[in-house]
Structure formats: structure tokens, C-alpha cells
Design a protein that fits this description.
The complex is a heterodimer of chains A (about 350) and B (about 475). Chain A starts with a helix and ends with a helix. Chain A is an all-alpha fold and about 350 residues long. In chain A, about 80% of the residues lie in helices and about 5% in strands. In chain A, strands 1-2 form a two-stranded antiparallel sheet. Chain A folds into 2 domains: about 20-110, no CATH class; about 115-305, MetI-like (MetI-like fold, Orthogonal Bundle), CATH 1.10.3720.10. Chain A contains 14 helices and 2 strands. In chain A, α5 packs across α7 (about 200-240). The relative contact order of chain A is 0.13. Chain B is of the alpha+beta class. Chain B is built from 19 helices and 10 strands. In chain B, β2 and β3 (about 95-105) form a beta hairpin. In chain B, α6 (about 165-180) packs across α7, α9 runs parallel beside α12 and α17 runs antiparallel to α19 (about 440-465). The chains are: A mainly alpha (about 350), B alpha+beta (about 475). Chain B: InterPro entries: MetI-like, MetI-like_sf, OppC_N.
């Protein structure tokens, strides 16, 4: 089967999954937001009435006037439509990338959902993707080292460290880091919001200082797991026949490990890399909240707390799209890296 | 399977397990946690989950554990309660009423937080009421009257340190003793900010208001209760509390709750949620994967599309949303259900690929040829083959469930009828525990979460190595 056809099937598949997710999510959010909208309409109408009274232009029949206004807003927010129509309306808008505005400005003055996401996403990339890259490099290096000397003190220590760090809740470790390094020792700022008065190099240094604690937290909690998985994959690869042949031929050990071994172990590692990098784009809701880092996770949490349906829909949509893109990229790269493997639909055709 | 076979395979398993050091460590930790969870009502009190919702008036608020003074080098007064029976010993009757004279040996660098006399109830007759006067007699012979003529009606509790009248009295006393002058704005500030007890138990010096230095020795806390006319007071339930600057094994939070009790009780929720979710998740996942592989073709295709759909839903936001949907709190069984609904995905994928291999084996084909039903083949022939994988997977998915429950509780969406570690951390975050340096409120619950997760990681990796032979050479 050609790559083109395979890609097409995968893409159609992803689109179907995407539209179902959007439908389900909008169904949930419409329900949650309903009550909130009703009470907000009440508030708006009351406020309008009050301002009319203050201008001495109070309507002669307040009750009828209020009913009229409520009806108007109910129509505006589509509350007079049946439930399924509203769900479809939100779903359609989301799929056509029309996320609308939020009620309350997020990040100071911004109310456009697309603008908010394009503000938050780079910040999350800056934090989580940087941390993730450090994690991957550190994990790979340490994992390969441990696989070279299975059973050594280094290997055992790394394994124990890996098991311990993966058991730690990331946000709790973040709290501890804040407690020690921000409040007890005062080495780093506790708030991750960059200082708006600084520009140029000062701004970069300011952001860098604020990045230290969150990045250390993420790296510490995640690198052990990476090292452990790399170690396990490498150990089984290093026992394969072609490694023995390479060694028998007198290929230098460095080349055996990195040239032959790591290359053969690449497919699962690449898949893991792609998924962690994509996963890092969504941020981690709680970790970002603990550090008050103004990225995707923090926005997600604010959006859910303040019931900004539009924002939640937009964020969910973006993260699902990223995930599905990751699945496709991972599948394709798998095929490229290891010709023996044909994954998923391609395997059967 | 016959009983003998089962016994034999179990003893085989045990023989192998014994050689896994990590597994033994995990098992020891698991036994420790089970003991902690089971003994919670006996080690602490049986009504902690109910009591947790209230404010623990008798306890000091946000104080570190008693052992923390070992590290700081400053000895701080521990929590002391004089219970009714003991209190009776200090009561003397006089013609005008009662005098309670309690000796207090202050041998610490920091005195207690407060003096609290609880549950003293007065019976009044007509317009007369019993009244109370509180004096402190210091080791240097000085005497201070903190309260005088406080009327007792019904059941009364007397708290000294937070009373602004008492603060003024103390400041005036210091001014009288030392002769210092205070400008009015400074005095106003002191009235709201001074630590009454520290000044009260300090050596007399001109700077004792700002830098009180403890005066050690025997103090007397004297309550004089006047009972005019036909009035009387009942002290049978009265107790005196000297709230400490430290408390118990793990200190207290801002509601005075004993964090040790909370952490011991939290183990129950963590273990239950973790194990229940892991077992359910893995069973559902394996069944789903095996069914997909067994039916194959279009059914498989559709089932895998559904699996992909479930996998692409961002779990935590949906859980948070459902939390708000359920009225702000998710009950324990709902958490288990939700974590299962979103958790089976990964297991299903692996189980399917393993089931595809099993399906090709001759005995499955033979069973199909003999006309066995789908249910029989799936449950009787295919699923048991996956059990080794399942057991290891169950242990390995406990940490995820424990962390997920803690995360939800941390966000304030947990079950309000339970005490959980996540909720303790949530309260800590709300009270800015990290900012204020309340380390005893932040570190222990997180360590407990990590330790439970670690227990199952140890067990899981050991089981994985024994039960999944392809990993044995690692």
C-alpha cells in the first residue's frame, strides 16, 4: 500500500475521532454552562434596568420590559433552542475554528480565545517542551549508560531513583521546591508571571530565573522513568545477534552502542519522544497552577473554574488535534525507522 | 484447575518472588500500609472523618510537630490539657466562691499560645450571675489581672490570648512595670499584633513588648470565681487547655486538626481507590482487548476506533468538568468509576496485541471447531492466558490511580465525607502553606502519596519480571 493512501486513511480516521470528541465535549459543556448563562442573563437585565432608572428612563411596565430583555438574551445565547441544536451549534463553531470570545478578559485584556491560546501555547512550550527535551536527553544518556553495565551500582541506583521519582506527584514536588528555594532560601521568585517592566536582556534573564524551579521540578520527576524505559529497551536490544556480530567484527564499542544498538531501539523511543513532546504542549494543569505559570494548563484551569465554555472548547480542541497529529506522526515514523514494522491499518493491507 | 495445582503454582510463584528484593520491599511496605489503614480508628480516634469537617477548638492552630524543636534548638511549649478530674484537685472553696489555682512550670523558650478554660457552666438565679477573674502570678512575684468580673452564663469558654481587652491590659501592665513610653500609633499597632502570652511569660525589660525573652519558673494561673446569692458554677466538665506551640507527631493545620490523624486516615482512601481502580481498569481493558482480537475484522476496527477516541480525550479536564457537573464534589465510587472509564485504554491496546497471538494457537482453534461459544472462548480460554500480564499491570496501575485521586482532591473536587491526602494538600495550598513555611503541612501528605505509589511500583516491577518471562533476562 502506498504511503499516500495510508496517510489519507489515517487522516480521515483522525477527523472522525476528532468530531466525536468535539461533540461529546460540547454536549457536556453546554449542560454545565446552562445554569450559569441563565443567572448571568438575569444579572445583565437587572443591571440594564438599574442604569435606565438612573437615567430617568425607566420603562413603564418593568416586568414586561424585563421579560422582553430576557427573551432577547436567551435568543442571543441560543438558550431558546433545544439542547441538541445548541450542542451542534457549539460543535460546528469549534470545528470551523471559530472559538469566539470569553466573558472576562484573561491575561489582562485579552478576550479572544484564539489570541489567548496563541499567548499561552508559547509559554507552555517554553516551559514544558524545554523541560521535556532535557528529560529526554538526560534519560537517554543515563539509560544507555545503565544498560551498558547491567547490575552495577550505577544501574541499581538509577533504577531505584527512577522508581522513586515516578511515584512522586509532580505538583507536590513543585510545592516543596517553592517551599525550600523560593520561601526559605529566597533564591528564586515564587511567582512565574514575568515582570512587565523589564525589556530586552533583563526580560530574558527574568524569565529564565522564573523558569528554573518549574523546569527542575519537571525534569526531576520525569527523567527517571525515561532512563528506566531506555535501559530496558537497550538491554534487550544489546542481546540481539547483530550486536554480537558487530562486536565480533571488532566494531568499536561506542559505535556498537550508539550506531547499532540505539538505532535498532529507536522506534519505541521515537514514539515516546513524540508523545511526550505533544503531551507537553497541553501543559500540566496542576503543576502550572502551583507555579502560577501562565501557560495552557493554567488557562485550562481558569477556564473551567470560571466556566468559560468558549475557552474550554478551544483548549480541548487544540489538545485533541495535537494528540491525533502525534498518533499519525508516530505511526509514520515507526514505519520509516523500522522497515520490519507496519503498524495499524497498514499491517493488514 | 485443581486445588493441588493451584497450591503448587502458588508455591512456585512464592519461590521466585522471594528472590526479588524489590518485590519483598514492596510487600513489606504493602503490609505496613494495610496495618496503618486497618488500625486507623484505634491509633487515632474512630470519628475522624466526621470530626475533620469541624474546627478543632481545643488544638493550637498551624503548629509544627513536637519533635521539630530538636532541629530548631528552641524549646517550645507542648500542648497541655488539664482534664476535669485533675482540675478538681486545684479547686478551693472560699466563702465567696471558688478559687482555681493551677501551678504551671514554664520551662520552655516559648510559652504556650493561649490559656483556655473550657465548659465552665454557671447557674444563675434572678439578676445575679457568677463572675470570674483571671490572674497570673509570675515567678518574680509580680501579679497581673488579665480578666476581671467576666459574667458566666450558661456554658462558657474563656480564651485569653485573642482578646483585645487583655492585650490592652498587658500593654498597660508592661508600661507600669518598665516605665516606657509608647506613642499612640505604635500602641495601636501593638494592640493588634502582640503575642500576649509571650509578653506575659517574659522577663521584665524595656524591650519586652518587641523582643520578649522567656522567664522560666513556676507560674500560677489563678481563676477566682465569685458566686453571689443563690448562684453556683459547675466545674465537672471544665478543663484547662494550654495550647502548645507544637503538637503531636505531625503538627496541626489552620483549623487545629491533628495532621497525624488525617494522614493515618488518608491511607484508607488511597489504598481503596488505588486497588479498586487498578483491578477494574485492568479487567475492563483486558476483556475489551481480548474481545476485539477474538471477533476481529470490522468489530475489531470499530472497537479500536472507540479505543482511540477514548484515548484522545484529555482526561483531567473532563474529570474536573464532571466534578463541577456533579455539584463540585465527586464521591469515592464515582472517582473509581471515572478513573476506570478513562483508564482502560492503554491496557486494551496491549491486551489486544497479545490476544491476537493467543488466538492463533491450536487449542483456541480446536475450541472454535468444537463449537464453543464466544463467551466461553474469551473467558475460559483466552483471558486466563493474559492473567500474568494482568496481575503485574494491576500493581503498576495503582500509582496512577492514587495520583489521580490526589490530584482531583487537590483541586478541591474530592469526596467531602472522607479525609484524603489530596484534600490536606488542597487545604495547605489554600492557606499558602508553602509561602508561610508550614512544611509539616505540605511534606508528610505528599510523602505518603509517593510512598503508596512507590509500594505498588516495587510490587509491579517485581511481578512483571516473574510473571512475564520475556522480561526475565533484564
Amino acid at each position: 500500500m502506498g504511503l499516500g493512501k495510508y496517510l489519507l486513511i489515517r487522516a480521515i480516521n483522525a477527523l472522525i475521532v476528532l468530531s466525536i470528541v468535539v461533540l461529546v465535549v460540547s454536549a457536556l459543556f453546554v449542560k454545565v454552562a446552562e445554569k450559569e448563562l441563565e443567572s448571568r442573563i438575569q444579572e445583565i437585565v437587572n443591571a440594564e434596568y438599574q442604569s435606565l432608572v438612573q437615567q430617568n428612563r425607566a420603562p413603564s411596565d418593568p416586568e414586561a420590559w424585563k421579560m422582553e430583555r430576557i427573551k432577547y438574551y436567551r435568543h442571543l445565547y441560543k438558550l431558546d433552542q433545544p439542547y441538541h441544536i445548541r450542542v451542534l451549534y457549539y460543535a460546528k463553531r469549534t470545528i470551523t475554528l471559530d472559538f469566539g470570545n470569553t466573558r472576562i478578559p484573561i491575561f489582562g485584556t485579552e478576550r479572544n480565545v484564539k489570541a489567548i491560546i496563541s499567548l499561552a501555547l508559547p509559554r507552555t512550550i517554553l516551559l514544558f517542551t524545554t523541560a521535556q527535551i532535557i528529560v529526554i536527553i538526560l534519560g537517554l544518556l543515563l539509560g544507555v549508560k545503565a544498560a551498558q553495565k547491567v547490575g552495577s551500582l550505577f544501574d541499581r541506583a538509577l533504577s531505584v531513583l527512577a522508581l522513586v521519582t515516578t511515584s512522586i506527584p509532580m505538583w507536590w514536588f513543585g510545592m516543596i521546591m517553592l517551599l525550600i528555594f523560593a520561601f526559605k532560601l529566597g533564591w528564586f521568585p515564587s511567582n512565574s508571571m514575568p515582570n512587565p517592566n523589564l525589556t530586552g536582556l533583563d526580560h530574558v534573564l527574568d524569565v529564565a530565573r522564573r523558569l528554573v524551579l518549574p523546569i527542575t521540578t519537571i525534569v526531576f520527576v520525569l527523567f527517571g522513568g525515561w532512563a528506566w524505559v531506555t535501559r530496558n529497551i537497550m538491554i534487550s536490544t544489546l542481546q540481539e545477534d547483530f550486536i554480537m556480530v558487530a562486536r565480533a567484527k571488532g566494531v568499536p564499542e561506542r559505535k556498537v552502542i550508539y550506531g547499532h544498538g540505539l538505532r535498532a531501539a529507536a522506534p519505541p523511543i521515537v514514539t515516546m519522544t513524540i508523545f511526550s513532546l505533544l503531551g507537553s504542549l497541553g501543559g500540566a494543569i496542576i503543576t502550572e497552577s502551583v507555579f502560577n505559570w501562565p501557560g495552557m494548563g493554567r488557562v485550562y484551569w481558569i477556564a473551567i473554574e470560571t466556566q468559560e465554555i468558549n475557552l474550554v472548547m478551544g483548549l480541548t480542541f487544540i489538545s485533541v488535534v495535537l494528540y491525533l497529529a502525534g498518533v499519525i506522526i508516530a505511526d509514520i515514523s515507526y514505519g520509516f525507522l523500522d522497515p520490519r514494522v507496519r503498524v495499524g491499518a497498514s499491517a493488514k493491507m | 484447575m485443581r486445588w493441588v495445582d493451584l497450591k503448587e503454582s502458588l508455591s512456585d510463584f512464592w519461590f521466585e518472588f522471594r528472590r526479588e528484593k524489590t518485590g519483598i520491599a514492596g510487600l513489606a511496605l504493602l503490609i505496613f500500609w494495610i496495618v496503618v489503614a486497618v488500625s486507623a480508628p484505634y491509633v487515632t480516634e474512630p470519628n475522624i472523618p466526621d470530626k475533620w469537617k469541624t474546627i478543632w477548638i481545643e488544638n493550637p492552630k498551624v503548629v509544627p510537630p513536637t519533635w521539630s524543636s530538636i532541629f530548631s534548638g528552641v524549646s517550645e511549649a507542648p500542648h497541655e490539657v488539664i482534664y476535669p478530674e485533675e482540675l478538681q484537685k486545684y479547686v478551693q472553696s472560699t466563702t465567696r466562691g471558688l478559687i482555681i489555682d493551677i501551678p504551671y512550670n514554664m520551662k520552655y523558650d516559648v510559652p504556650p499560645q493561649d490559656i483556655v478554660l473550657m465548659n465552665i457552666s454557671g447557674k444563675a438565679d434572678g439578676r445575679l450571675r457568677p463572675s470570674l477573674t483571671l490572674k497570673i502570678v509570675r515567678p518574680d512575684g509580680k501579679e497581673i489581672t488579665l480578666l476581671s468580673g467576666v459574667k458566666i452564663k450558661g456554658t462558657t469558654t474563656i480564651q485569653v490570648a485573642r482578646d483585645s481587652g487583655v492585650r490592652k491590659t498587658v500593654i498597660n501592665w508592661v508600661k507600669g512595670e518598665t516605665g516606657i513610653q509608647l506613642d499612640p500609633s505604635k500602641e495601636l499597632q501593638l494592640v493588634t499584633s502582640i503575642d500576649t502570652m509571650r509578653v506575659l511569660f517574659a522577663q521584665i525589660s524595656p524591650d519586652m513588648l518587641e523582643y520578649p525573652k522567656a522567664l522560666q519558673g513556676e507560674y500560677h494561673i489563678v481563676f477566682e470565681i465569685k458566686t453571689p446569692g443563690n448562684t453556683s458554677v459547675d466545674l465537672s466538665n471544665a478543663k484547662l487547655i494550654l495550647p502548645g506551640r507544637t503538637y503531636g507527631y505531625l503538627g496541626t493545620d489552620d483549623k487545629g486538626r491533628d495532621l497525624f490523624a488525617g494522614i493515618v486516615w488518608g491511607s484508607r482512601v488511597s489504598l481503596t481507590i488505588g486497588v479498586a481502580t487498578a483491578v477494574l481498569t485492568v479487567l475492563v481493558g483486558i476483556f475489551y482487548g481480548v474481545a476485539a482480537a477474538y471477533f476481529g475484522g470490522w468489530t475489531d476496527e470499530i472497537m479500536m476506533r472507540f479505543q482511540e477516541f477514548m484515548a484522545s480525550i484529555p482526561t483531567l479536564p473532563i474529570l474536573i468538568l464532571l466534578g463541577t457537573y456533579f455539584g463540585g464534589h465527586i464521591q469515592l465510587w464515582q472517582i473509581v468509576l471515572l478513573l476506570t472509564v478513562f483508564g482502560w485504554v492503554g491496557v486494551a491496546r496491549v491486551a489486544r496485541s497479545m490476544a491476537y497471538q493467543i488466538k492463533e494457537q491450536t487449542y483456541v482453534e480446536a475450541a472454535i471447531a468444537l463449537g464453543a461459544g464466544s463467551g466461553r472462548i474469551i473467558f475460559k480460554h483466552m483471558m486466563p492466558q493474559l492473567l500474568p500480564y494482568a496481575f503485574a499491570q494491576m500493581a503498576l496501575s495503582v500509582p496512577g490511580a492514587v495520583l489521580a485521586e490526589a490530584s482531583l482532591s487537590f483541586l478541591g473536587l474530592g469526596d467531602p465525607t472522607q479525609v484524603t491526602w489530596g484534600q490536606i494538600l488542597h487545604d495547605a495550598q489554600n492557606a499558602n502553606a508553602a509561602v508561610n513555611g508550614y512544611w509539616w503541612w505540605v511534606i508528610p501528605p505528599g510523602l505518603a502519596i509517593a510512598l503508596v505509589a512507590f509500594t505498588f511500583v516495587l510490587l509491579g516491577t517485581a511481578l512483571d519480571r516473574i510473571l512475564n518471562p520475556r522480561l526475565r533476562r533484564l
